[in-house]
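Schema walk-through. Below, the input block comes first and the output block second. Nothing else is stored per chain. Lengths vary across the set, and this one has 664 residues.
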Amino acid sequence: MEKWHGISKAGVIGRHIYEVFPSYKGSQPGFRLQDVLKGETIHLAEKPFLHRKGYYQSTVVPLKDLKGEITGGVFVVHETTRRKEAELLIQQQNAELATTLEELRTAQEQLAKSNKALEEKYNKSSSALAQSEQELQSSEEQLGLAIDALPAYVAYIEKDYRYGIVNKAYESFFSKKKEEIVGRPIWETTGRKAYENAKEYIDRGLAGEQLSYEKYQEYGVGNMHTKVHIIPHRVNEEVAGIFLMAQDISEQKNAQAQQEELLQSLREAHKEKEEALAEAERQRNRLHNLFMQTPALLAISRGPELEYELANPEYVKALGHTGPIEGRPLKEVLPDLSASIHQLLQQVVDSGERFMSKEFPVQLDWDNTGEPYTRYFTIILEPIKDAQGKTDGIITFGYEVSDQVAAREQLDEFNKKLEKLNKELQKKNTDLLRINTDLDNFVYTASHDLKSPVANLEGLMTLLRPSLLPKADAHEAQLLEMVERSVKKLNLIIKDLVEITKVQRDLEEAVVEKVKLKEVAEDVKTDIGQLIDESNAEIRENYEVEEITYQRSSLRSILYNLLSNALKYRNPHKQPVIEIKSRELENELVLSIKDNGLGMNPQQQKKLFTMFKRMHTHVEGTGIGLYTIKRIIENRGGRIEVVTEEGKGSEFTVYFSKEMAVKD
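--- output ---
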């Protein structure tokens, strides 16, 4: 537009189209422009450029927003100067040809009048024949002069296909004198091929048809694209011959071909521009959809008053507005915005530099209740610059972080409370450790102190049994047996209490080392060898993990309790089969002991790891073994699980924490 019309972008943008192109104002094309706003695509007639020679033609396409509403029009302008010049040239040549035809018709009419006058004179008097012949000769001479003056190739062809008249242009084209042409057949002058191509039209003319045709002809002296007019010459209502007038339209055809080529190029360019425009529209729609659907706050504002050009729903919603804000200045949309923020926006416009801020406070009457409060945003203010590099707007991008700020403040407050609680907890932990130490010491001391009286009691029962038992009746003998069992059980409980305190001390004092599972298992099997032999048990071992970093004594206690329990609580009707396996998981080492023993029902499983709880009473025990190994495993950051079914056996799985092993 700048190049073709000689106008500047700065001088046009924002001005009414009638100011830039006054010729549209009050004209039919100007009225048609209004049809674009009704959804029509219009094609405006050719017009000259504003400030230079040449012509252009416009197509105006409606411009729609996302709602399908028409907001304006897009002008697609094509330069048509060459086509217009070609059309003007063709019009000029057609005008000249029409003039020539008119002159030819006039000459024919004059000839007809002359012939009629001659006939009248011949009928009136033979004495006037000489005068008539003289007048006829004069008319023929005048007709010949008129024909010679025509800028076309003119010939009169008689019914026998011989030339009767040719003009100077005809002689010149074939480089022959009139005497070499007139009276001779057509093909001797034009060549046989050109004659054969024209014969059809000549015959139609001799048959009385007035016609015109265009044809590219090959003559012996050259090639030419001609436009031929054939006019029959009638004498007494019969065709005596034809007037043939041919005009060289090679330049016009070339111009038309160039024009067609230009039009095709223009159509292709127009199609490409329409496709580009459609693609640009699709891209604009995609960008607009992205702009409108993004979960962040987005707005574009321009001009000295920072009028909103576009604002997405998140932005409008954040401001507490329910309707569109496009076209309204910032001060109108946010009348209670602080002066400091206005200064910040002006600073971005003046400096042309981006502004970024995290947790930027904005105090407004967000809920329209008359009570302003502060919300926090992470914002970016990006300046928009025109072609001259001057800032004429701002893109606002942001998202609200009020919840994060509130959460951080709550977290700070929570951390303060947590710090206070930690101090209190540390004090309580210290107290509990002291109490636990005291309890362990008490249990250890009590168990040791009880050992002697219980041993004495056991010794006394051993001494009394030989003297009392022979004298005792059945009831008394039963009581003595019950006392002995109670003393033995008390002795076992004291041993287990000592074992519990020993476990705690081992956890605190024992050294963590790399222990081979197979070595510990062999050691345990040696200890319970008698039980293995008595039960004829089969023990299968598969160690995918052969070594573990752990306390040797603790690992031995785990294996001892699980293996001895598997043998103690075996199914009396089956050969005991025990499987020991180890494997590695992502963060854990796994050891499992599976048996085919008695198993447990759901009620028994609930009390499985409780101190002094026994699942089966047909063998001796205190029910402290599983409690002890659970305490060992969990104190080392691991866990123990069991899968069991009554009558089918149990599988105990121990998960050792890799992290605890590495840490140690």
